[in-house]
Amino acid sequence: MKSQSNSLHVTLAHRLLDYVRAGHLQAGHHLTEQSLAEALGASRSPIRGALAYLAEKGIVGAQPPRRGLYLLKGADQLGVIEEELGTSQDDQIYLQLARDKLSGIWGDTLSENDAMRRYGLTRERVRRILARAANEGWMEQRASKGWSFLPMIDGPQACEESYTLRQMLEPAAMLLPGFAIDSTVLRRVRLQQQALADGGWRHAGHAEMYQANATFHEALASLSGNRFIAQTVTRQNQLRRLLEYQETLDRERIRRQCLEHLAILDLLEKGERAQASALLARHLGNASEEKVQQLERQQQQRSGQPGAFSESMVSHAEPMEETAQFSLMAQAKNQE
Q: Which secondary structure element, helix H or strand E, spans residue 66, and what is its range?
């Protein structure tokens, strides 16, 4: 019997998949309504509806003789699931809210009434979307009335500053005496990156690509043995979330990034930390240059300045050549 899924169930289904990816849960993991209600901040009734929706899609299901529902697809198998599920209206409004903030439509604060008028939603749905933004770290509810936007990476200058910090921190973390190569962590990250490189890059949505990229960098930072480095990398990922939601997905760039991530993992698994650190520094430098240039173009387009041009005018030949060099360097080290 087909479930009567509504927009809340679909939204929670997407959030449940984010939870699965964040926790790196594997097929066969037991899902309980109570634990999911606590993790997602929702009541058990809509959680039940989200599970029924995912059961229809073959993502969760029963495993007799055991009782309850279990994951049928693990975190490393979710490469194209978001595309199969489609996007709920709440997800579309959520992304539009992020884009409106970055384009300057909203200031530092937002009232529920203003959001209701702009997006044509009930107060309940507006609060649900704003609560999601607060949960993801870029809004907070004010003590009085309304909501506030928290400081974020919202332009080319802030983006460049963030990448400068990361270029100083992340490669150096690999060279610390306390850095410990954990084969279990590297294997888990590799599965996720390989699934995207093998074709998932064609279908992955904004949230999934953001999560995969953030997981890679946070996993490597966690191996440093320094909790403050790990916290800093996690915070930088939270600050750049809005930018990832705003931009049009460059599918080819996604594939290149996955290949670069895999090349770094190859070297770490061989114990070549110095080489992996150098490749990571170059990877972050390339990403910084591409992202800052993209944000500058977007600013020009919004302001109507002459010289603004479309994404189709940007050549990807040089980044592709650099990705080939990443792979060749990793292969050369593996043959030594």
A: strand 66-71
Q: What is the largest CA-CA distance in the chain?
A: 67
Alpha-carbon distances, residue 274 vs 130, 175, 187, 190, 277 (angstroms): 43, 7, 20, 19, 5
Residue with tokens 């387009």: 301
In this prediction the pTM is 0.64
Note every long-range contact of 213-218, with CB atoms under 8 Å and residues 24 or more positions apart, other chains counting.
213/237, 213/244, 213/257, 215/21, 215/22, 215/24, 215/189, 216/189, 216/192, 216/261, 217/166, 217/170
Do the Cβ atoms of 284 and 163 come closer than 8 Å?
yes
Q: Distance between alpha carbon 69 and the CA centroid of its chain, in Å?
A: 26
φ, ψ dihedrals at 144, nearest 5°: -85, -120
Q: Indicate the residue type of 10.
A: V
Q: Are 147 and 109 in contact (CB under 8 A)?
A: yes
Give the span between the Cα atoms of 128 and 93, in whole angstroms: 11
Q: What does pLDDT average to in each consecutive run of 10 residues of the chain (336 residues)?
A: 64 80 81 87 87 90 88 73 60 86 90 95 90 83 88 86 96 96 90 83 73 90 94 88 69 88 96 96 94 84 53 36 49 48
| Strand, coil or helix: 58 | coil
In a 3-state reduction of DSSP, which class is residue 242?
Answer: helix
Backbone angles phi, psi at 210, to 5 degrees: -60, -45
CA-CA distances (angstroms) from residue 294 to 85, 153, 157, 189, 308? 29, 14, 12, 27, 11
Is-contact 292 160, C-beta < 8 A?
A: yes
CA 202 to chain centre: 16
> Cis omega before residue 156 (within 30°)?
no
117-139 b/e with 16+ CB inside 10 Å = b? Answer: ebbebeeebbbbbbebbbebbbb
- The pair phi, psi for residue 177, each rounded to 5°, is -60, -30
CA 104 to chain centre: 23
Distant-in-sequence, close-in-space partners of 201: CB < 8 Å, separation ≥ 6: 251, 254, 255, 258
